[in-house]
Structures are given as structure tokens and as C-alpha cells.
Write a structure and sequence with these properties.
Elements (H helix, E strand, L loop, with lengths): L1 H20 L4 H9 L27 H12 L12 H13 L10 H7 L1
Length: 116
């Protein structure tokens, strides 16, 4: 058992030195290894935890992906690409109409409540 631990420590030390020599910090390497592949993330999942910022045309990122996925569940499918463009804007306006909200195309607190 002790031999296995010593070997593991030695391998970890070699790997760390290799990364540092290559100009990669061990912290950055670990962060990169824990980033999820966007194609495997379920942005519609009820367990998807994200602060719901106000987003609008021109916004980009995971909050937009989450909204795009939710728009599809409301019957207004758009490509889940994380870019709030014209198609997303039009789908948001349609859902806002379904929820009797002001159809401004902006996803703020009221529209998030409707989508979720």
C-alpha cells in the first residue's frame, strides 16, 4: 500500500513539473479538466444552477443557453448556441405573450419566472 502511495506522489510530482515546464499552472490544468463539454450539459435541467441575470439581444453565455432551452420547452424552439440573436428575441417575445407579459424581448425576473 505504501509503495502505491509513493508511486502516485512521484507521478503527480512529475506531471506537475511537466506542466510548469510547459508553462501551464497546475491550477489552470485542473480547471481545464473540470470544465464540462457544452454538448453534454443539460441547460434545461431543473437542477441547472445559474443566477438568472437580465439578458437581451446581444447577450451571450450559459444563461442564454438556459433560456434558449427553456424556450424550446415552451414550443418556441431555437438553436441552443448561447447567442441571443434575432431568433431568440422573437421566441422570447412569443413566450412573453403566452405569459401575458410585456413583449419587450428582454428576459428579466418576470420572464425568467415564466420560463422556469
Amino acid at each position: 500500500m505504501m509503495l502505491i502511495k509513493k508511486r502516485a506522489v512521484k507521478l503527480l510530482t512529475i506531471a506537475t513539473l511537466s506542466m510548469v515546464t510547459a508553462g501551464i499552472s497546475p491550477v489552470a490544468a485542473q480547471a481545464a479538466s473540470t470544465v464540462q463539454n457544452p454538448s453534454t450539459v443539460d441547460y434545461c435541467s431543473e437542477s441547472y444552477s445559474q443566477n438568472h441575470p437580465t439578458i437581451a439581444r446581444g447577450s451571450a453565455g450559459n444563461a442564454v443557453r438556459h433560456a434558449q432551452c427553456k424556450l424550446g420547452k415552451w414550443g418556441h424552439p431555437v438553436t441552443v448556441d448561447g447567442i441571443f440573436g434575432d431568433n431568440t428575441y422573437n421566441a422570447v417575445r412569443a413566450v412573453q405573450g403566452d405569459c401575458n407579459l410585456t413583449r419587450d424581448g428582454i428576459i428579466g425576473p418576470k420572464t425568467w419566472r415564466c420560463l422556469d
